[in-house]
């Protein structure tokens, strides 16, 4: 019954509108055709966007090229007076850098000269007495030589010789103390290991009871001036039995 009613209503609509069933079906399909046409326009929009971007990029490149050309043209047409001032300024900057470099070198050289002069002055003070001290050492050697030749028996038997001996001994002590005040010290090598920087070996003798290479005899006393060897001590060294 419902089916018959539906067909009757359809016939009535068709008779009033004057459309065939095929036309009614065609009108129903219109939205689908429109949807298809809408999708078909997407590639065209994409191509349009790419073309627009390409045109913008070309315009940017052209603008940059024109700007560079204008800059070069500006440099080419630079005012001669301004150019001269710019060159003078660049030259002044170079001269200033060169002067700073010379100043730094001169300052370093001056400091080095100060240090060198200071050391030389100190060395002159420390070793000014070197020549005089060497001459005085000969006098002390003579005092030592004279005192060593006096025998104890003679001192006991002769009072005058004893007084003379004591006077010479006191004079030698005064000389040694004066030298010590000016930085002159004795080298005491007896019993020590032989040191070629401080000692001068004059002979070698084997000594079974002493260590080989040690000093067992002092022929002449050595001295130093402010820790610098003024005169090495002349010594006898113990010889090794293997040699």
TrEMBL record:
<comment type="similarity">
    <text>Belongs to the GrpE family.</text>
</comment>
<dbReference type="GO" id="GO:0051087">
    <property type="term" value="F:protein-folding chaperone binding"/>
</dbReference>
<dbReference type="GO" id="GO:0000774">
    <property type="term" value="F:adenyl-nucleotide exchange factor activity"/>
</dbReference>
<dbReference type="GO" id="GO:0006457">
    <property type="term" value="P:protein folding"/>
</dbReference>
<dbReference type="Pfam" id="PF01025">
    <property type="entry name" value="GrpE"/>
</dbReference>
<dbReference type="InterPro" id="IPR013805">
    <property type="entry name" value="GrpE_CC"/>
</dbReference>
<comment type="function">
    <text>Essential component of the PAM complex, a complex required for the translocation of transit peptide-containing proteins from the inner membrane into the mitochondrial matrix in an ATP-dependent manner.</text>
</comment>
<dbReference type="GO" id="GO:0001405">
    <property type="term" value="C:PAM complex, Tim23 associated import motor"/>
</dbReference>
<protein>
    <recommendedName>
        <fullName>GrpE protein homolog</fullName>
    </recommendedName>
</protein>
<dbReference type="InterPro" id="IPR000740">
    <property type="entry name" value="GrpE"/>
</dbReference>
<dbReference type="InterPro" id="IPR009012">
    <property type="entry name" value="GrpE_head"/>
</dbReference>
<feature type="region of interest" description="Disordered">
    <location>
        <begin position="39"/>
        <end position="82"/>
    </location>
</feature>
<feature type="compositionally biased region" description="Basic and acidic residues">
    <location>
        <begin position="43"/>
        <end position="69"/>
    </location>
</feature>
<keyword id="KW-0143">Chaperone</keyword>
<keyword id="KW-0809">Transit peptide</keyword>
<keyword id="KW-0496">Mitochondrion</keyword>
<dbReference type="GO" id="GO:0030150">
    <property type="term" value="P:protein import into mitochondrial matrix"/>
</dbReference>
<dbReference type="GO" id="GO:0051082">
    <property type="term" value="F:unfolded protein binding"/>
</dbReference>
<dbReference type="GO" id="GO:0042803">
    <property type="term" value="F:protein homodimerization activity"/>
</dbReference>
């Amino acid at each position: 019954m419902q089916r018959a009613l539906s067909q009757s209503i359809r016939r009535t609509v068709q008779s009033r509108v004057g459309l065939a069933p095929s036309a009614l079906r065609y009108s129903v399909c219109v939205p689908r055709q429109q949807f298809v046409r809408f999708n078909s326009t997407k590639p065209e929009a994409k191509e349009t966007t790419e073309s627009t971007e390409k045109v913008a990029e070309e315009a940017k490149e052209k603008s940059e090229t024109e700007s560079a050309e204008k800059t070069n043209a500006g440099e080419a047409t630079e005012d001669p007076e301004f150019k001269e001032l710019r060159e003078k300024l660049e030259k002044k900057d170079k001269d200033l850098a060169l002067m700073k470099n010379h100043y730094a070198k001169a300052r370093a050289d001056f400091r080095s000269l100060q240090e060198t002069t200071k050391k030389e002055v100190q060395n002159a003070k420390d070793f000014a007495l070197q020549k005089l001290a060497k001459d005085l050492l000969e006098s002390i050697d003579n005092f030592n030589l004279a005192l060593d030749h006096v025998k104890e028996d003679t001192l006991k038997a002769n009072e005058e010789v004893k007084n003379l001996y004591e006077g010479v001994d006191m004079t030698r002590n005064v000389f040694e103390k004066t030298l010590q005040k000016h930085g002159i010290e004795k080298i005491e090598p007896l019993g020590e290991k032989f040191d070629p920087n401080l000692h001068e070996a004059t002979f070698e003798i084997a000594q079974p009871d002493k260590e080989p290479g040690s000093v067992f005899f002092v022929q002449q006393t050595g001295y130093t001036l402010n820790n610098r060897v003024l005169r090495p001590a002349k010594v006898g060294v113990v010889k090794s039995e293997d040699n």
